[in-house]
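Let us begin with a simple case.
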Amino acid sequence: MADKKANKNKIAIYPGSFDPLTNGHIDIIERALEIFDQVIIAVLHNPSKKSLFTMDERVTMIKQSFNGKNSVQVDSFGGLLVDYAKIKNAVAIIRGMRAISDFESEFQMALMNRKLNKEVQSVFLMTGFRWIFTSSSIIKEAAQFGGDISDMVPEAVHIKMLEKYPPPKKIEA
């Protein structure tokens, strides 16, 4: 007897603030696409967080970074993630982990999501070693002080970062 779920498009949600999207995020998304048919990058609206980029800017940068890749959708949401996942018919929530320090809070969130909706699984993917040190906040800090972040973010993000943090003027001796 054929499994009804076998013919179903397996959708995963990758939630986050993505302020901004980094190559570490891209790494997680590309590896999630090896497991799932479609990944929805869900940009979280969190009014308690002060963001560098507006919601529209973040969504636009992410869309540009995946330039028409059909297996990647970009959306925004507010409210409970498990409710959003249900609306989108997602079977999983993708979470990227860089270090042991990420585990405790991610584990707590996964348990709460499981309690709220047993139909949606949490899938943890370790960030590729190349990106283990990167985070949106550390990239913003480096850019703010003139650091070259061009190899840590997609080109669309780098262009917008330069608008927010123009390179410092060179001081001639």
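The second case is a distinct protein. As before, the sequence precedes its structure tokens.
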Amino acid sequence: MKNVFINRASMFLPNEPVENDELEEFLGYVNNKPSRSKEIILRRNGIKRRFYAIDKKNRKSTHTNAQMTANAIRALFEDNPEELATIDLLSCGTSSPDQMMPSHGVMVHGCLPETSNIEVVSPAGVCCAGMHALKYAYMSLKTGDKTKAVATGSERFAQTMISDNFEEEVQQLIELEKDPFIAFEKDFLRWMLSDGAGALLLETEKNPDGLSLRIDWIEACSFANNYETCMYMGGEKLENGDLKSYKDYEVTDLANKSLFSIKQDVKLLGENIVKLGNELLLSSLEKHNINIEDITYFLPHLSSYFFKKPIADTLQADGLNIPEEKWFTNLSTKGNVGAGSIYLMIEELFNSGKLKKGDNLLLMVPESARFSYVYVWLSVC
């Protein structure tokens, strides 16, 4: 088995950053009224700015998910674009592909004519999709099947959050003489999500000059066998907890029920997301004989700063205290980019000049869709 190293990290963020007071100028007002929950959510999530792949004036797309991902990949090879032709694996994770078919990965490959005919994979999922993409690339290199891989995580959410996507549902509520507002489960995520892409170059030899991140282990686990759906898109959650697919609705319901908006069962999220993550962390540290004190930087993917204290309290209760100065996140300045968030954190820290040989990084990526977690241990060398 070969060692696998992250030798480069890059990102692409579309357009100029969007500040909190500009949100509804970009996304629009549902029923021509300000959101009832926006200010509450913004106070709790701590996000100050995010990035949208849409034009402010017309709310039209400026980039596809595939284009953003391809731009992030090109940034890995900015000093030597011919090197793009030497990669032999492209592994792309996202929860917001531009279409159902073809896959996200091959669409990214299609944006990169500089590459060769190579293997391409597209792990499905939500926030963990980016980590599954990383693990596929890691295992492919570790076994010797590939020698040079690119893994990516990206999202394009903004276009699904504009007010036009909710107007049919609102008008239906007005006709039924019900209060025409978008339920909290739908409005909750409108003020948290962001667009962008990150990319990592993986090789079986470390950088000859400068630092590399050796991937020591990746542990992933789903808890879906015991828990019902929490976050979803393209369906509707029924009273009994089952998820009804958009395929089983009438065509008119797609708009009337805004079935392709992202929704979250906030109560279920709060009850389970933190405690389940600690279960996997405890078992992973024990399996790999890791002492929590060996962590130099803890990179948790947070959907909201609201979860930071509960995570810290739960860690401490389990004897896993991680001091504040070891936490690293850029949620406030990049927003929640879902499958791309952890890539953006790695990119920022890797290129910050803060790392030194011997440092250890613990990555944590939760996924509330049906409760999954991924932990990664990286050694700076």
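The first helix runs from residue 23 to 27. DSSP finds 13 helices and 15 strands in the chain.
Keep these points in mind for the review questions at the end of the chapter.
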